[in-house]
Every structure is written in C-alpha cells, then in structure tokens.
Design brief:
Elements lengths: L4 E6 L26 H11 L1 E7 L5 H13 L3 E6 L8 H10 L6 E5 L14 H12 L3 E4 L6 H10 L5 E3 L12 H8 L9 E5 L13 H15 L4 E3 L12 H11 L5 H16 L2 H6 L2
Parallel strand pairs: 1-2, 2-3, 3-4, 4-5, 5-6, 6-7, 7-8
Length: 291
C-alpha cells in the first residue's frame, strides 16, 4: 500500500453561524467567509492527501459535536481535535457522551486556546489538571497551542503527564518574521526529554513569517531544530488551512515543507507526511486499514 499523506491540522468555519471569529478582521479579513469541505477537497486531491485532522476554531462544545458529525459525513476527515471545558467537574461524563455517540470514534483529541487566557500558567491550575487527567483517561490526545508566553507551562504540563499523548501545534508559533529563533529554541529544546509522548506539528509557520516575502529558507532553521529536538518519529505535516491562505496557497505550504525535509530518507518523509499523525492520533480509519 502507498503510504498515506495526512494533513494533521486544518479548520472549517462559518462566521455567519455565530462563534468567536472577531479575529477575522484587519489583515485576516480575506478569511471572513465560510470554509467547508468542498473548498478544501481540490487542494487535497492535487497534493495526494488521503486524510485530514479537523481542529477546533473556538472554545465551544457545540462545535465539537458539529465537527464529529462533519467527520462522519466527509470522506477525507480522519479525525477531530475538538474542545471541551477542562475546568468542568462533569468533564468525564461529557467525554463519555461524545465517545459513545454515533460519531464518537472521530474524536481523537481536544485542545483549548490557551493563548486567549490572561494567565500564561492557565494549564497549571488544579481544575485544569483534573481535566487533563480526564482527557488522558478517555484515551484522547491533548493538543497544545501556545505562543511563547505559554510555552513554559506547556513544558511543565507534559512533564506532569508522562503517560499522556500530547501534540504541540505550529511548533509553538515562533516569531519567524522577527528572527525569533534564539528565544524560542531555548524553550523548545526542553521538550527533548519528553519526546517519547509528545509530537510536534510542522504547521502554522508561514503565518509567523513575513507574509509577502517568506521562502522555504526562512523556515528551514525552525524545521531542522524541531527535527533535532523531537526526531523524525515525532514530527507531522499540517497546513493550518485556511489560516495559511493569508501567506501562501495550500500547494505552496506543502512544497515548502518538502523543500525543508528533502534531505531526509524516503522513510522519514513518509513518517512526517502521514504515518506519525496516524500513530499519534490513532486515526480510526487508517488504523483499521493497517496503514
């Protein structure tokens, strides 16, 4: 079987349907419209992408229910990273309801937009820790989506839950456009001792670079640092579509990552472009196929 390509990070949204999409203004105004499966499908077909992971866009349980239903109805969505309230004392019951529902198998992980919290140590709160324990007990991945201020608490969190699967989104959003490598690298290297249970998405980089002038050469130092820290068994391809569209087409994001890892072996490239996402998220359809 041909090794499948998995886009481990993308979104759908409809701002007219409600939701916290106030950020779709200013330079992001071109994205202030509906993005649905039909919009993404041509890009997947052009690039040979066999499956995707659909990721939450705002902190709302209703969206999680909508997304797992979307996964059931969409042939290429292989898993959903949704949202649940980690501070809710009834979280185990909520997770159980989601998992036993008719669409429950598609829920493979959860995340919270921690960068929207005023407290950079939000993850270290006791009620949040109880929530993370419930996520672990449910067998789900927790996606970390920090900016630099939340990175120290993210590191402490993965250290506190050594038996839980974590995925670090967007290589933690270093300020590529402002040459923010050094400060970021000091922190990202602290994940090295935890890479047995932490994966990292090679995603979201183009929107942290200069939108008008970035090249693959701008991304390479960051990609190579992440590969050194996490290893080729723990890194995965993601586009962050449609957010990436402010800086690059879907095709250009794919091409840029291919350029960054062109010197790796074919086997390692297959891991990064699909097999690692299948392992980390235990994507049901691809695991059933034996991919």
């Amino acid at each position: 079987m041909t090794s499948p390509i998995i886009d481990s990070h993308h979104h759908f949204w409809d701002p007219a349907g409600g939701g916290d999409y106030g950020w779709l203004s200013g330079p992001f105004e071109p994205l202030n419209r509906t993005f649905e499966p039909a919009d993404l499908r041509p890009s997947l077909e052009r690039n040979g992408v066999a499956g995707t992971v659909l990721v939450q866009t705002w902190n709302d349980l209703g969206e999680t229910w909508d997304f797992i239903k979307t996964a059931e109805e969409t042939d290429f969505v292989a898993g959903v990273v949704g949202w649940v309230d980690l501070t809710d004392g009834k979280l185990p019951e909520t997770l159980s309801e989601l998992r036993v529902s008719s669409y429950g198998k598609w829920l493979v992980g959860v995340r919270h937009l921690i960068q929207t919290e005023n407290d950079p140590n939000w993850l270290l709160r006791e009620d949040v820790k109880h929530g993370l324990a419930a996520v672990q007990a449910a067998g789900l991945v927790y996606d970390l989506v920090p900016n630099l201020p939340q990175l120290p608490s993210s590191i402490k969190t993965v250290e506190a839950f050594p038996d839980m699967r974590f995925v670090l989104d967007h290589i933690s959003k270093p300020e590529i456009r402002n040459r923010g490598f050094d400060e970021w690298a000091v922190l990202i290297r602290q994940f090295r001792s935890q890479r047995h249970h932490v994966w990292c998405k090679l995603s979201g980089m183009v929107t942290e670079a200069d939108w008008q002038s970035w090249t693959a050469e701008d991304l390479k130092p960051y990609v190579h640092e992440v590969l050194d820290v996490f290893g080729t068994d723990r890194c995965m391809f993601g586009t962050d579509w449609p957010v990436c569209l402010v800086a690059a087409s879907y095709d250009r994001v794919v091409d840029a990552l291919q350029e960054c890892i062109k010197d790796l072996s074919e086997n390692d490239r297959k891991k990064i472009f699909g097999l690692n996402a299948i392992e980390a998220y235990r994507l049901p359809e691809f695991q059933e196929r034996g991919a």
